Amino acid sequence: MNPRTIKPQDIISVYISFIVGHGGKRRPILVLSVHGEELYFYQLTSQYENKSKMIQDQYYPLKNWREVGLNKKTYVDIGLIRSANRFDLDKITRIGYLTVADQNGLADFIVQFKMNRH
């Protein structure tokens, strides 16, 4: 996939470095915005059950994960907006595009999450 064609609401697979420690792994991400060469995104995960309640509370469950091309139930981790230079990302693979239902559901989830934190 050409890094120039990445747009908001795309779900793509890229190599992500771990925040803590060394290394990283390929994982799906949800593109939030693209400003110049900088790409802002949320990480996606299928790991939910063994997470703490605090972490689970920041995971939005995608309703249409199959429709966008994901292989298993997937959650959007809204705990941290990450960024990367889109031209530094290796082997970008397009998985799909967030459905309108999930765009709206995620927006509502974020509002509720922020309200509950104050």
Account of the protein in words:
This protein is α+β, with helices and mostly antiparallel strands. Helices cover 19% and strands 40% of the residues. The protein has two helices and six strands. It has helices at 53-56, 100-117; strands spanning 10-17, 24-35, 38-45, 59-61, 75-85, 93-97. A six-stranded antiparallel beta sheet has the order 4-5-3-2-1-6, with helices on one face. The longest helix has 18 residues, at 100-117.
Provide the low-confidence segments as ranges.
Answer: none
**Helix proportion of residues, in percent?**
10-25%
The fraction of residues in strands falls at 35-45%
Average pLDDT, all residues = 91
Counted beta strands:
6
Tell me the Rg in angstroms.
14 Å
Structural class: alpha+beta
Q: Please state how the strands of the largest beta sheet are arranged side by side.
A: 4-5-3-2-1-6
Helices, by number, come to 2
Q: Could you spell the SSE succession in H and E letters?
A: EEEHEEEH
Looking at the structure, what is the overall shape? globular
Q: Largest sheet, described in full?
A: 6 strands, antiparallel
User: How far apart lie the N and C ends?
Assistant: 40 Å
Give a topology summary.
Blueprint: E1 10-17, E2 24-35, E3 38-45, H1 53-56, E4 59-61, E5 75-85, E6 93-97, H2 100-117
Features:
alpha+beta; 40% strand; 118 residues; 6-stranded antiparallel beta sheet; globular
Task: Write a brief structural summary.
By secondary structure, the protein is α+β, with helices and mostly antiparallel strands.
